[in-house]
Amino acid sequence: MDVPYFVQVEEARRIAADVVRALPLPDVEHVPLAEAHGRLLGEDLRSLVDDPPFDNSAMDGFAMRLADVPEVPATLPVQAVVAAAAQEDLAPLLPGHAVRIMTGAPMPPGADAILPIEACEVSEGEVTLTKPVRPDFIRHQGENLAKGAVGLAAGVRLTPSRVGLCATMGHPTVPVQRQLRIAVIATGDELRSPGEPLLHGEVYESNSHGLVGLVRAMGHEALHRPVVHDTLDGLREALTSAAAEADMILTSGGVSMGEWDLVRRLMEEEGDLRYWRVKLRPGSPPLFGLWQGTPLFGLPGNPVSSHVVFRMLVADALRVWTGADGPKEAQVRVRLRDPVKATMDCLTLRRIVVAVEDGEMVGYQPRHQGSGNLESLASADALTLLEPGAAAEPGDVIDALLL
Ligand code: AMP
Ligand code: MG
Predict the structure, then answer these.
(1) Do 201 and 292 fall into the same domain?
(2) What is the CATH number of the domain that holds 377?
(3) Are 229 and 198 in contact (CB under 8 A)?
(4) pLDDT tens digit sequence for 114-157
(5) Which residue puts its alpha carbon closest to atom 14 of ligand 1?
(6) pLDDT tens, position by position, 60-83
(7) What is the pTM of this model?
(8) How close is the Cα of 223 to the center of ligand 1, in Å?
(9) Are residues 33 and 164 both part of a single domain?
């Protein structure tokens, strides 16, 4: 066979990246803020205002002129009260006076210090300042973001705080990338939907549900297709209909060496196969190629493997395609409590439970690591990133990918 076979993870990523990079970037559309959550920003977004838009107080307290309070305690007459609201004409601070001010209220002209209320004793018309006054607790106009500055770069994923920042910058709608439509197709004669009775030899179909969630978590749209039986004709038809509608196809199952591994056969015989098998454990069987011009990942059937391959390979290709940063693959350093061994050939992702002990992250491997054991993934917090051949002993610190 002349397509690359059993390739390193890096090579698999490069091959898929070269394919998706040649495809057009998704178009940009504008959505209201409420619909922007989880989407990928389509263009650099500049602030329409200074943030904050005016100098204001960071504390409830009193505003004054620093020079009026060389030492404390000092007692000043209270000139006025300002709350956080529109202030057309704020009277300038009179010499030797203080102004009662609330958090977020504009600074009276002339004031250059705030003393928090906890350091003030208030009596009839006067305030006694009990702590030294410093030029603190003022939020200066534009100190967070200047008007016109780029607050969010194209490609970022709109997390809740970023959607908030869009509003802070004055945008009622946000330019986002059109979501990629990603078809998810599970294959296998033995698969039943939850809710149906299981005959002997059948299992509940789980991969498509996990993959739909992974697609959505990256800000894209999942086209959840019905299970396809192990026939060449049925599979061909399912791929062709998916290719007409979707930007990318994910299949699960049917990519191993078995006689019924028809995704592999079909891609070899009628598709445009770019690699088959990757040095990844679990998850060595996947293939990547194009079906009628649409990029297709053939993921393994084993439930843990399909998840791992999405995280390691599909997610990377989607990030390349969209120029997106997120969600960032959160990599951490973990001190092992149990021994963990990599296989000779493969980057090895063992499922570990992570705890914090004595101020550091530690990892346990409490479950058997069969790639059919979805419970071991559901109860894990992270996946080890062990280089081929590595053996990590209790006490060793290793890289891990947070789930
Ligand atoms: P395959 O790659 O098709 O040979 O499948 C490998 C293993 O994964 C078999 O035990 C299948 O029953 C199981 N499997 C395949 N697809 C799914 C699925 N969508 N949900 C749950 N298990 C699956
Ligand atoms: Mg199968």
Answers:
(1) yes
(2) 2.40.340.10
(3) no
(4) 999 999 999 999 999 999 998 989 999 999 999 999 999 999 99
(5) 301
(6) 999 999 999 999 999 999 999 999
(7) 0.89
(8) 20
(9) yes
